[in-house]
């Protein structure tokens, strides 16, 4: 092939180009690691003890008992549906547990509450489940309100 005057063999690339490519890949990988590390939410465990609540428990109880009474009155007056009233009572009870203990009960199932050291809350939430998720006919709102009221008033 050397006899042909117009043919030139392939030229080798300089090793600098290989190292430049490796460095570019390392920079891109580093960028992804940096973005992931900066935007990642810190891990919280449900078993980590939280600081004691700094709220005034008697005032908190009074406020939530008033809200429970308001839901019961609205249901009795026909302003809210029965299922919606049961869901409001469950949300109020879970909010009370969060405010009184610092445990985010709004995002926990009944089984999660049972595994957590909150047996009273788990029992009350379990008692409200038929009104929230059950089939018709639903239990009366007054029964669920009484259970929520009992749980709030005997808390702590």
Describe the model.
By secondary structure, the chain is mostly helical. It has one domain (14-156). It has six helices and no strands. The protein has helices at residues 15-39, 57-76, 82-101, 110-115, 119-133, 141-153. Helix 3 runs parallel beside helix 6. Keywords: Membrane, Transmembrane, Transmembrane helix.
Briefly say what this structure is.
The chain is elongated, with a radius of gyration of 31 Å. It contains six helices and no strands. Helix content is 63%, strand content 0%.
Characteristics:
single chain; mainly alpha; 156 residues
**Approximately how much beta-strand content do the residues carry?**
under 5%
Query: How many structurally independent domains?
Result: 1
Q: How many beta strands in the DSSP annotation?
A: 0
The structure class reads mainly alpha
Ends apart, CA distance between termini: 95 Å
Residue share in helix:
55-70%
Largest sheet properties: none
Q: What is the number of helices?
A: 6
General form: elongated
Mean pLDDT across all residues, rounded?
Answer: 82
Q: How is the topology of this model organized?
A:
Layout: H1 15-39, H2 57-76, H3 82-101, H4 110-115, H5 119-133, H6 141-153
